[in-house]
Give the backbone structure.
Amino acid sequence: MIRRGKSVEFTCTAVLFDLDGVLVNSSEVVRRHWKQWADQHHIPVERVMAVAHGRMTAETIHLVAPHLDAVEEAHLLDAQEGIDTDGLQVFNAAPLLLRSLPPGSWGVVTSGNLRTASTRLRYGGFPFPLVLVTAEDVQRGKPEPEAYLLGAQRLGVPPAQCVVIEDAPAGIAAAHAAGMRAIAVATTHDQQALGQADMIVPELASVAVIVEGGRLRVTAEPL
């Protein structure tokens, strides 16, 4: 890591992006579906939202309602959320940033399922990633490192040569457990909650990635 004035630079071979909270703002969609589910099961929605960000749906359900069949409940909830774009917003800098990167130098690693991720990527007009890791691809989701390690493996890049861009503490923990550096965007959580990140920025627009001879120079303006 190099510091130049207020900016901070990382050099790496690949960047792994979380999806929700980083490339798209899906907060309205996510909360709406969790509230419907929580109301159905008489669970305070705030209890759900306190642990849902960055986690797979089934793991969230297991945490807040261990008496339920988490897999079946997640299947039903994800099927509804996966096609819903009402209130979905794209972070302005995201499509341009992804289009500026060589296809084999980045991937998307999300706790959502394939249907939800595909819907949101298409809605945002993003180039479809060569590497997309979703909930179906892993046994243990974030904060475990499996998803990010799989992303690096599919790109053919050592984990230590990856920089992760995340919005949730669970994702930051997963990146560090995978041996990767993590930049946090403060779109979903406050700075205090993101304190374990290597750097915190307001949003993706504060991050620039320059391609230099097969390497990436990631520059950001931290909070």
User: Anything to note?
Assistant: The CA atoms of residues 34 and 45 lie 7 Å apart.
